[in-house]
């Protein structure tokens, strides 16, 4: 008698975990644009974000092999 409720519990837990992993549409997506004002190699995400703020973006980070500053905003 204990097996069916246990299987049901495991199934519910798995469904909850799967639902948490599925992205929820565009609400979590970030659009990126290379900074026009950042000069030199981008080695510090905070400096990049500050320059991006001056360009009107809410954030920014360094990325890529050549370490460019990319500004981010929600899509």
From TrEMBL:
It comes from the Eukaryota. The keyword Signal applies. Residues 39-73 form the Invertebrate defensins family profile domain. Pfam families: Gamma-thionin. GO terms for biological process: defense response. SMART domains: Knot1. Keywords: Antimicrobial, Defensin, Disulfide bond, Signal. The keyword Cell membrane does not apply. InterPro entries: Defensin_invertebrate/fungal, Defensin_plant, Knottins, Scorpion_toxin-like_sf. Residues 1-28 form the signal peptide. SUPFAM superfamilies: Scorpion toxin-like. PANTHER family: DEFENSIN-LIKE PROTEIN 1. This is Invertebrate defensins family profile domain-containing protein. It comes from Spirodela intermedia. The lineage of its organism: Eukaryota, Viridiplantae, Streptophyta, Embryophyta, Tracheophyta.
């Amino acid at each position: 008698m204990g097996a069916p409720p246990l299987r049901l519990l495991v199934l519910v837990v798995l469904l909850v975990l799967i639902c948490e992993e599925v992205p929820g549409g565009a609400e979590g997506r970030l659009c990126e644009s290379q900074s026009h004002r950042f000069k030199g190699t981008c080695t510090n995400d905070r400096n990049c974000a500050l320059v991006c703020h001056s360009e009107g973006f809410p954030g920014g980070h360094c990325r890529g092999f050549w370490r460019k500053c990319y500004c981010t905003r929600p899509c």
